[in-house]
Amino acid sequence: MLKFGMIGGGLGSYIGKFHRWGAMLDDSAELVCGCFSRSMDKNRATAEAYHLPDTSRVYADFHEMADKESAREDGIDFVSIMTANDTHYEIAKCFLEHDIHVICDKPLALHTEEAEELARIAEERGLLFGITYSYTGYALIRQAREMIRAGVIGDILHVRVQHPEDWVISGAVDGKVDTSAWRFQPKKVGSSLCANDLGTHAEQMVTQFTGLHVKRVLAMMDTYPRDLPLDTNVNVLMDFGGGVTGTLWASQIAIGHECDSGIYVIGTEGSLEWTATDCDHLIYTPRSQPSQRLSAGADYLLDASTRLSRVGAGHNEGFIEAFSNIYRSFCNVLSDRKAGRENTTDTFPTVEDGVLGVRFVDACVRSHTAGGVWMDV
User: Fold this and answer.
1) Among 219, 162, 168, which residue's Cα sits nearest to residue 193?
2) Which of 52, 88, 213, 288 lies at a 20 to 30 A Cα distance from 44?
3) What is the rounded distance in angstroms from the CA atom of residue 316 to the CA atom of residue 94?
4) Which of 133, 122, 225, 214 lies closest to 170, judged by CA?
5) 3 state SS of 340
6) What confidence tens digit (pLDDT) does each residue in 290-310 have?
7) Residue 53, SS3?
């Protein structure tokens, strides 16, 4: 079994548990070390709560962890990074330079130059680098991708993708929110809040669902509550080249939408539609024919989809399982590499996808700042 360590994810962390469960749900990896918090008291308490087998592998900072784990014969196979956005680059670079594989929460970095540097280091050192765009881990996303590759819906004409939530406006009192949280601080999250937080989920959904990459964007970014320094609602026109167009909507003020990720792809011979609120079903509509409702886990689906399902059709799987599918695929590829085998079956969002996500946000900000004009990604 692979061994991994965590940076961040201490007691009380929201996203930390999903990373830990994701790596361990299918016995893909064992947690053996970590720097879970800047506070050593919380660090030790987290290690105890997570049943870490060796408390000497609780580290005060990520530099110490990278140094000591890389020097051990039984050191970690990969590190999982789940800290605030502005720390991803520095931490990931440190572990890459110690020849340790990395899986990281999105965004990859705050700036394009940093993201590109991480991709370059990973390539030069032959290291795996995964990004947890969690919503792309659902089994039916792979079903759609393989159907599109096989030409089932013909040539793609248009893509509509969305990721609306309402958590910012739900926390507003008299038109204001508590801006002390790190997510509202530009130094922590970069030049965008909503596009960085949710827009990149939607952008990556398009890539994993269709294989398309955005070439140009025209973006409009709104802010409410008005006193916030960054966007909370984003509308983007997308140009994928070759006459393929798209629209993207991401929002943190969409009242009535708790987490409504979804995508609709129109082709010359049919369409495909999927939403996170009905994640176990993919709607396939052949041209001039009735719609078909494909169920996750059904034996008529392609292997690329069924191997990601742990239960049969009619038994729901959700966000935790989707998160775990990314970890399982990452770990399968890493295990095969360590054994000298090539794995061409398992896929996951890579550092290259992370770079495209950073470029996408940068292009959206430039487009909006320039008054709503087309910008290359």
Assistant:
1) 168
2) 88
3) 39
4) 225
5) coil
6) 999 999 999 999 999 999 999
7) coil
**DSSP letter (8 states) at residue 163:** E
Mean pLDDT across the chain = 96
| Sheet of 292-295, strands arranged across | 292-295, 281-286, 270-275, 262-267, 156-164, 244-251, 233-241, 216-222, 375-376
**Amino acid identity, position 91:** I
| C-alpha to C-alpha distance for 345 and 277, rounded to whole angstroms | 28
pLDDT for 175 equals 87
Radius of gyration of the chain (CA): 21
SS3 for 156?
strand
| pLDDT, tens digit, 9 for 90 and up, residues 127-168 | 999 999 999 999 999 999 999 999 999 999 999 999 999 999
What phi and psi values does residue 93 have, to the nearest 5 degrees?
A: -60, -40
How far apart are the C-alpha atoms of 226 and 81, rounded to whole Å?
32
DSSP letters of 286-331? ETTS--EEEETT-TTS-HHHHTT-SS-TTS---HHHHHHHHHHHHH
What count of residues does the chain have? 377
Q: How far is CA 110 from the centre of its chain?
A: 15
Q: Can you tell me the distance from the alpha carbon of 260 to that of 278, in angstroms, rounded to the nearest whole number?
A: 10
Give 74-94 as a DSSP string: T--SEEEEES-GGGHHHHHHH
SS3 at position 155? coil
Residue 65 has pLDDT above 90, yes or no: yes
Residue 36 and residue 17 in contact, taking contact as beta carbons nearer than 8 Å: no
Residue type, 5: G
Give DSSP secondary structure letters for 214-274. Answer: --EEEEEEE-SSTT-SS-SEEEEEEEEETTEEEEEEEES--TT-SS--EEEEEESSEEEEE
51 conformational bin, left if phi > 0, alpha if psi -120 to 50, beta if neither:
left
Residues 218, 368 contacting (CB under 8 angstroms): no
Least Cα distance to 168 among 215, 219, 226, 225 occurs for 225
